[in-house]
TrEMBL record:
It comes from the Bacteria. This is NnrS family protein. Keywords: Membrane, Transmembrane, Transmembrane helix. It comes from Oceanisphaera ostreae. Pfam families: NnrS. The chain crosses the membrane at residues 20-42, 62-79, 91-109, 115-137, 144-164, 176-193, 214-233, 239-259, 271-294, 306-325, 337-359, 371-389. InterPro entries: NnrS.
């Protein structure tokens, strides 16, 4: 049976043998290209001829284009391990990846108001949700059903973002985008609790840190409540104060949670310290969002980039670097080039988040330099991991 499976696997182009391959590589490539287009727009070049609102495009495509591609690749791959049911591959995976890619390619030319773009972009996430539901229903592992309604929630937020674009309601757009950034970071905290202590224990030959029940509940409940409160609560001084308090509680809980994960042992392991530094941007982002709500001299947009450029940028790069090695049958060791990429993405996050706060006159320089560093970091990933993700596993196993 194994020989038969291997022969069948060999007929599939390696890029479509598991979800992490096409979505990690595609997401990373797209993020670098999107950042390049963003730099050109900031420089006065009409690089998005069909787009009505370039700021909307930038926020939407980095969240719903780049970040969700990585999430989809990670979850459809991990679901195979969690349930024991083979993951999607071959032509079904290629179709889903194509449905993700087409809106990314069409939007700069046809615009965010184009019905075809909107339809395609709202189609691929529910299909992924359905593909995730099948193995859960087959094995009755209801714990992993969490990802199905989560992907449907992402679809709802995506639809709201398009509604805001069509109606020209930027305040709604901003609310949806920040709710999405919070939701993605909340997902990082869920997955982080599953894998970061395990990764740390395995890499440092130490015992895995046992979770504290009340701390896990407080950390996760507070950050998910922040997502829904940000999306649903009206903006008044009272609700802003309550939401700010909730964000502070979530931030403190996650700092404490992170401090328990043996971070002192990670200094010589790049695949670990990039995750820890990226995770640290989550509570920092929650605190800056709280400060923005309380009108403490920080804009909501600036505060949100602690979560996007910071947490998403660094954690995603660290996770796709590690997962790609593990699922391609290679040693969990990164090259010097990838260590440079980790440093560059952290510098990109710091420049984008901190420089406009301490030197507002250098805000445009922060935008350009941060985007350039992002392009370099994810460009290095694509260069190093292209042969890894487009060739068969090093150990000859399927996947």
């Amino acid at each position: 049976m194994q020989i038969l499976d291997t022969n069948k696997e060999n007929k599939i182009w390696p890029l479509f043998r598991l979800g992490f391959r096409v979505f990690f590589l595609g997401g990373a490539l797209f993020s670098a290209l999107a950042m390049l287009l963003w730099i050109l727009m900031l420089s006065g070049v009409d690089a998005l001829p069909g787009v009505q609102n370039p700021i909307w495009w930038h926020a939407h495509e980095m969240l719903f284009g780049f970040a969700l591609a990585i999430v989809a690749g990670f979850v459809v791959t991990a679901m195979q391990n969690w349930t024991g049911v083979p993951g999607i591959k071959s032509w079904p995976l290629a179709i889903v990846a194509g449905l993700w890619l087409l809106p990314r390619l069409l939007m700069p030319l046809r615009g965010e108001l184009n019905p075809l773009v909107i339809t395609l972009d709202l189609l691929w996430l529910p299909i992924v949700a359905g593909m995730l539901a099948l193995p859960v229903l087959k094995t009755k592992q209801w714990r992993n059903l969490f990802f199905v309604p989560l992907f449907m929630f992402f679809t709802l937020l995506n639809a709201l973002s398009y509604y805001a674009a069509i109606s020209g309601n930027w305040l709604l757009s901003e609310r949806v985008f920040i709710a999405m950034a919070l939701a993605l970071c909340a997902l990082i905290t869920v997955m982080g609790g599953r894998v970061v202590p395990f990764f740390t224990a395995r890499a440092t030959n130490t015992e895995k840190v046992a979770p504290i029940s009340w701390l896990e509940k407080l950390s996760l409940v507070s950050v998910w409540l922040s997502v829904f409160a940000w999306l649903a609560l009206p903006r008044t001084p009272v609700t802003n104060a309550l939401l700010a308090l909730l964000l502070v509680v979530a931030a403190v809980a996650h700092v404490y949670r992170l401090s328990r994960w043996n971070y002192k042992l990670t200094g010589t392991v790049p695949l670990l310290w990039v995750l820890y530094i990226g995770y640290l941007f989550i509570p920092l982002g929650l605190l800056t969002l709280a400060a923005a709500l309380l009108r403490m001299g920080i804009s909501v947009s600036l505060a949100s980039h602690w979560l996007t450029a910071g947490a998403l940028g660094a954690v995603v790069l660290g996770m796709i670097a590690r997962v790609s090695l593990g699922h391609s049958g290679r040693k969990l060791e990164v090259t010097r080039a990838m260590v440079v990429a980790f440093v560059l993405i952290i510098l990109a996050a710091v420049l984008r988040s901190v420089l406009p706060m301490i030197a507002p006159s250098m805000t445009m320089q922060a935008y350009h330099s941060s985007a350039a560093l992002w392009i370099a970091a994810y460009g290095i990933f694509c260069w190093v991991y292209w042969p890894i993700l487009t060739q068969p596993r090093a150990d000859g196993h399927p996947g």
